[in-house]
Amino acid sequence: MNHYEGITPDQRWRNDLLNEMRQIRQLLERNAQAVEQPEEKSEPKRRGRRKGA
Q1: What ranges does the record give for the region Disordered, renumbered to this chain (predicted)?
Q2: Which pLDDT score, from 0 to 100, does residue 39 have?
């Protein structure tokens, strides 16, 4: 990854960590949206047998 001159190794590490956390959050949000989409579709109601029939 490209870094600016004069940045300390600690600042580089923190910046890289922040970028990784952002990427992980984006991927988790994408996965959460993929899980939510199938639940929005309603299943057809099934008729059961009547009691006493």
Answers
A1: 29-53
A2: 54
pTM of the full structure: 0.54
Query: What pLDDT is recorded for position 40?
Result: 52
Contact (CB, 8 A) for 22 and 31: no
Rounded to 5°, angle at Cα 32 from 28 and 35: 140
Q: Are the CB atoms for 3 and 12 separated by under 8 Å?
A: yes
Give the 3-state secondary structure of residue 46: coil
Could you give the CA distance from residue 40 to residue 28 in angstroms, rounded to a whole number?
19
Can you tell me the mean pLDDT for 17-45?
Answer: 84
Distances (CA, A) of 26 to 8, 14, 17, 41, 45: 27, 18, 14, 24, 36
The span from the CA of 28 to the CA of 37, in Å, is 14
